[in-house]
Amino acid sequence: MSSNMKLRESQRVVLVLCGGGSKGAVEVGCYRALLELGVSVEAIIGTSIGAVNGAFIAAGIPVGEIIALWQRVKFSDLFAFNWGVLWNPRKAASLYDNGKLRRFLERHLPARFEDLVLPLTIIGTDLRTGEMVLMESGDLIQAVLASTAVPGILPPVIVQGREIVDGGLANNLPLDVAAQKGARVALAMRCGCRRPLAQTPRGILGILSRSFDISLNSRRMCEIEPYRDRTRFIVLEPCLDENIGLLDFSHSAELIEIGYRFALSELRARASEWFDTIPMEAR
Fold first, then answer.
1. What pLDDT shows up at residue 82?
2. CATH hierarchy code of domain 12-271
3. CB–CB of 31/264 below 8 Å?
4. CA distances from 144 to 54, 104, 135 (A)
5. Strands 120-126, 185-189: pairing kind
6. Angle, CA of 210, 214 and 70, to the nearest 5°
7. 30 and 258 in contact (C-beta within 8 Å)?
8. What is the mean pLDDT of each successive set of 10 residues along the chain, which is 283 residues long?
9. What are the beta bridge partners of residue 159?
10. Where are the domains of the chain?
């Protein structure tokens, strides 16, 4: 494998990681491919599950360890039913509390943005105003929890006095944020193109998960035309099995491999457009 593969005109390569729930495992496969191809990631912007992956990468966790985390994790490791839904449904904010997710993040991430080895921007949505919120300093765990707070599934999180929910609602693929921050190259992997389900989901969790999945995938990418003269946008979009639920982590190994193979194939096939040198075959 050649040691370095430089992107054209690139002084900064910003990795943009989107939302998609459990399908976010494909982003880890993509990151593995980038490393093998010698692409240097200098900053990360993440929303929803992309905030989790982005935090792992920005913390300097080796890609093999990130893959192992994804392959081990189960739904029950991250979510605990919020019994308040039964006791006081009018006041309950979500089906699940975020205590388990918080403890998982605390075990694997530093406490603050300032302790990361790469610059990280996390996207959230202000529940009151609907505005996009950028989180880049202070409490890292709180920011990740906020960006992953899928309405109805996980509760809103207070960040600097604002109630923040899932970043995908405001900007699920924040390429424009990368451009605004001066990125010469913004490289993203979307968590799958849309295909119909084999059958309609059943149960409140299945319907909630599918509805949010549709919402994320239906949102068009934020307008990037004004930035094309100064930012090169590379968007990889593998087609994934739409029957994999938003919170179904049992397919992580398969999704990681799909992301890895797809990224290798696409980046090599379009090397003449995107790269100064064509990469050799990965070992």
1. 86
2. 3.40.1090.10
3. no
4. 9, 11, 9
5. unpaired
6. 65
7. no
8. 48 84 96 91 96 99 98 95 81 90 98 98 97 98 98 94 95 93 91 67 69 62 78 88 84 97 90 59 46
9. 162
10. 12-271
What is the dihedral sign for C-alpha 143, 148, 151, 152?
Answer: negative
How far is residue 149 from each of residues 123, 169, 171, 178, 210, measured CA to CA in Å?
11, 10, 14, 22, 15
**Do strands 132-135 and 120-126 pair parallel, antiparallel, or not at all (unpaired)?**
antiparallel
Contact 52, 24 (CB under 8 A): yes
> How far is the C-alpha of 222 from the C-alpha of 187, rounded, in Å?
15
Dig out the tokens for 225 from the structure.
């035309």
**What confidence score (pLDDT) does residue 189 get?**
87
Residue 4's pLDDT is 52
45, 144 in Cβ contact below 8 A? no
Radius of gyration of the chain (CA): 18
**Amino acid, single-letter form, for residue 260:** Y
Neighbouring CB atoms inside 10 A of 205's CB total: 17
pLDDT at 216: 60
